[in-house]
Amino acid sequence: MQRWQQAGFGLYVHWPFCQSKCPYCDFNSHVSDAVDHSEWAAAYLNDLRRYALETPGRVLSSIFFGGGTPSLMRPETVAAIVDEAVKLWTPANDIEITLEANPTSVEIGRFAEFRLAGINRVSIGIQALNDTDLRRLGRMHDAREARKAIEVSQAVFDRSSFDLIYARQDQSISAWEAELRDALSLAAGHLSLYQLTIEPGTVFGARFERGLLQGLPVEDVAADMFELTQGICEAHGKPAYEISNHARPGEESRHNMIYWRCGDFLGIGPGAHGRLTDAAGQRYATVARHMPGDWLKANQAGATHDGREMLSQDAQATELLLMGMRVNSGVDLTEYQTISGAPLSPTRLEPLRAQGLVEITNGRLHTTPSGRLVLNWVLKELLA
Amino acid sequence: MTQLDLIRNFSIVAHIDHGKSTLADRLIQLTGTVAARDMKAQMLDSMDIERERGITIKANTVRIEYPAKDGKTYILNLIDTPGHVDFAYEVSRSMRAVEGSLLVVDASQGVEAQTLANVYQALDAGHEIVPVLNKIDLPAAEPERVKAQIEDVIGLDASDAINISAKSGLGIPDVLEAIVTRLPAPKGDRDAPLKAMLVDSWYDSYLGVVVMIRVIDGVIRKGDRIRMMQTNAVYGVDKLAVLKPQMVDIDELGPGEIGIWTGSIKQVRDTRVGDTITSEKKGCETPLPGFKPAQPVVFCGLFPVDAADFEDLRDAIEKLQLNDASFSSEMETSAALGFGFRCGFLGLLHLEVIRDRLEREYDLDLITTAPSVVFKLHMKDGEVRDLHNPADMPDLTYIDHITEPRIKATIMVPDDYLGDILKLCQDRRGIQLDLSYAGSRAMVVYDLPLAEVVFDFYDRLKSVTKGYASFDYVISEYREDFLVKMSILVNEEPVDALSMMVHRDRAEMRGRAMVEKLKELIPRHMFKIPIQAAIGARVIARETLSAMRKDVTAKCYGGDATRKRKLLDKQKAGKKRMRQFGKVEIPQEAFISALKMDG
Ligand SMILES: Nc1nc2c(ncn2[C@@H]2O[C@H](COP(=O)(O)OP(=O)(O)O)[C@@H](O)[C@H]2O)c(=O)[nH]1
Ligand SMILES: C[S@@+](CC[C@H](N)C(=O)[O-])C[C@H]1O[C@@H](n2cnc3c(N)ncnc32)[C@H](O)[C@@H]1O
Ligand code: SF4
Ligand SMILES: [Mg+2]
């Protein structure tokens, strides 16, 4: 069996609109009060049908509505996309259909309708469990709504996860520890815990550059927070399976695992990326027009992406490591060799092994707990 | 050939921006030497950089025909000299080729440091001097006050100073008349054997080496065979011309005349400025007193940012050297910066000009290491060695003592800033020699180590005086001081490109500044890295760069694979610019920033 078949086949749908722009966020998200929902629904369906022509007979293992804020989509749009997708491709028996949701009361009110539209998993952007920090993160919800959203989602959907951002301004290790324990007591089977990243081009990025973003943890504290998080989650039965993702075994996000295992996925909607392997076995990267207006126009004119990049063997092997090393199970070295045509160079591998940053278990190369903390360095040593 | 009494040879001396080039333009224009349509501002500043920065680097010449009020037509030869101290040597040699000077002083600014330095050179050359007060069109012009200043500070009679505006043309006819009536005509014997002074030489891509001469005695004609008395080389005169300022062929040049000739000379290095030129046969007996060649005093390393450009850099340096015998170079290898050249310059401006030209005219991207001076190592066995590069410092046990170049610096500054200037000079190991006032301006003369001046003295001077100070210097002597080599060790490995010669008393301060800066510049590694400054085996400053603890991207989804791949390509490219010291990798940018350090 081919690798891309093993790793599953996913569909990513990008909804590019939000109620307001969060100061830390560099996702392709825009604030607009003039969204013609039926026009957008039609556009997504166009794209689905076009992609279906080149991927006949594939088994669809997951759909992911991401954003932006897809919980602002009309449930009927979501339903139309899900219905069309399961018509165009054969759905897996256990198909995972996730929607990213923001926990404002309006959106909580729509959970049931999303369930009827076919959504069976939600990932809620909680970010923090206290009002002060939620305000500093520029969020539109408060802690009470956050708890409510978690509670309702668990009643409505089969699976529910939520995201927190930590290593925030002025957050002490002990405050984070308390908040994390609280979160774990609320969580179902899955939890995403991201350290706050200051991205260039965001409001935080600009403040940081001018030295105005104070109180961020220094490297050592951030490292301690990460290690503490690993330990607590593991003890709680939700070990990390990826750098920032924790799950009870079996509850991992199947859709995201496609990314990390370098499986195929379609990306539709503005700025969405995709990876596709054609019948001849050639793999391509696709990326759609970035700006919502441009994308919509291009879509109506018949094509949404700017062309495809053919991925060389080298690029594919590189991606396998870049993505695969993020998950605890790591990368199959035989698979790496098959794709790249050569084994990983021992002169690069051995020093990392000697330093205790990586290990090889049953033919899979993976990070150790200390390697995980410096994964970018490990990858640079392996590949650059 | 022109009668001696119808010739006047002169130069113009001025502080930068006092209007030397503008005046030269006016003189050329008023005499119709250049047709109006060919006139461009600053005729004599021909190099791009000269025009752009408004400075004269090489001496340039123009021959002007002037019909004077006495009804006779005179030949005026103007040699435009560089104003900047780095080129003082060029100034002095061009001054020896003429008999008089116009001293141009900006009537709104008054006498400045370069005015003094240049006027003393003119007096040394025995010149008759005509003071000219320029910019009297400016409301701030105070010609009477400036006249008094010229008399007080320089000791010249300024009662007949000419008031002009080079900009508007006011007073220019008076200047031309004064050149004829107040400056002396040259002397010489037409019937004596040929004796001419080699004033300058440069490389021209069409003509090869062009030699500028001033005839003292005898006559030089096209087709003559001549001998250079110092090198004893013999050449044929293929072309003989005068500069108006474009070349105009001429059959012969007699005593007092200035012109150029060419004769299949391969490089500028084959000519010695100050050499005496005579006929191959029946030449003159005694040569003119010669010049010492200019010695480079400031050195720095020039390395290509991209190692692949090394050959291009070599070619570019060779081409520039065709034209500039005072710029020296020798190949250098540095573990930090790769292959490059250690280059010698007459001063900091010279360094900057050459570097700019290499980058601009030859499209090179260069790393310039911190400038240093030539130290003299007096070895125990009596030998004296020049140290151009701190990295080459031999074992101390063989050295008896070290001397360094000192300068005599003249600084003119509004007295509000005097305190800051004195402090700056004192901090830089200066010894005050003189302090006097000319109106509200103070003039201080300091004895300073050149090494302290090449570092960042100009910048500091400019910033503490908000640009109001003027500064000039001459090299005075080599003197002993307590000088040591400070080396920098990264993870116990010495890093050659960062070693420097410092005064023992300032070593701790410099060392601390350097290790602190490096701590910011070197990326963290998986282990901790000591960064030390040391004199011999003694560590005088230390910082520790702690080990990297966290370097991981928090979120990474579908599209991030592409982003990460691109980042990796960048890292691969960056790796080429990394230098390995033992186990530590240091990016080239870190060296560049560390070497730019001030303090
Ligand atoms: N107002 C005024 N400006 C002048 C006069 N002569 C020169 N300048 C200006 O002073 C500046 C420096 O002149 P320049 O001839 O380049 O000085 P140099 O550095 O001595 O060659 C230029 O901006 C000129 O335009 C003048 O008589 N009056
Ligand atoms: C696609 S985003 C947005 C989902 C949804 N719109 C929301 O804001 O709740 C998914 C998650 O990435 C995380 N995230 C976004 N920007 C981040 C940043 N700069 N640093 C760390 N985590 C970030 C947040 O936890 C967020 O929930
Ligand atoms: S974090 Fe979520 S809600 Fe905020 S701007 Fe980004 S995508 Fe929109
Ligand atoms: Mg000028």
Q: Count structural domains of chain A.
A: 2
Shape of chain B: globular
- The CATH top-level class label of the largest domain in chain A: Alpha Beta
Largest sheet composition of chain B: 8 strands, antiparallel
State the separation between the terminal residues of chain A, measured CA to CA: 31 Å
The CATH architecture of the largest domain in chain A: Alpha-Beta Barrel
What structural class is derived from the secondary structure elements of chain A? alpha/beta
General description of the model:
The complex is a heterodimer of chains A (384) and B (599). Chain A is an alpha/beta fold and 384 residues long. Chain A folds into 2 domains: 256 residues, Alpha-Beta Barrel (TIM Barrel); 73 residues, Orthogonal Bundle (Arc Repressor Mutant, subunit A). In chain A, 43% of the residues lie in helices and 24% in strands. In chain A, the strands form 4 sheets. Chain A has a 9-stranded mixed beta sheet with strand order 9-10-8-7-6-5-4-1-11, with helices on both faces. In chain A, helix 2 runs parallel beside helix 3, helix 8 packs parallel to helix 10 and helix 13 runs antiparallel to helix 14. Chain A is globular, with a radius of gyration of 21 Å. The two termini of chain A are 31 Å apart. The mean pLDDT of chain A is 95. With 599 residues, chain B is α+β, with helices and mostly antiparallel strands. Helix content of chain B is 26%, strand content 34%. Chain B has an 8-stranded antiparallel beta sheet, covered by helices on one side. Chain B has a 6-stranded mixed beta sheet with strand order 2-3-1-4-5-6, sandwiched between helices. In chain B, strands 22, 23, 24, 25, 26 and 27 form a 6-stranded antiparallel beta sheet that branches. In chain B, a hairpin with a 3-residue loop joins strand 12 and strand 13. The longest helix of chain B has 18 residues. The radius of gyration of chain B is 28 Å and the shape is globular. The mean pLDDT of chain B is 86. Bound molecules: guanosine-5'-diphosphate, S-adenosylmethionine (SAM), iron/sulfur cluster (SF4) and magnesium ion. The site of magnesium ion has 5 residues of chain B, from helix 1.
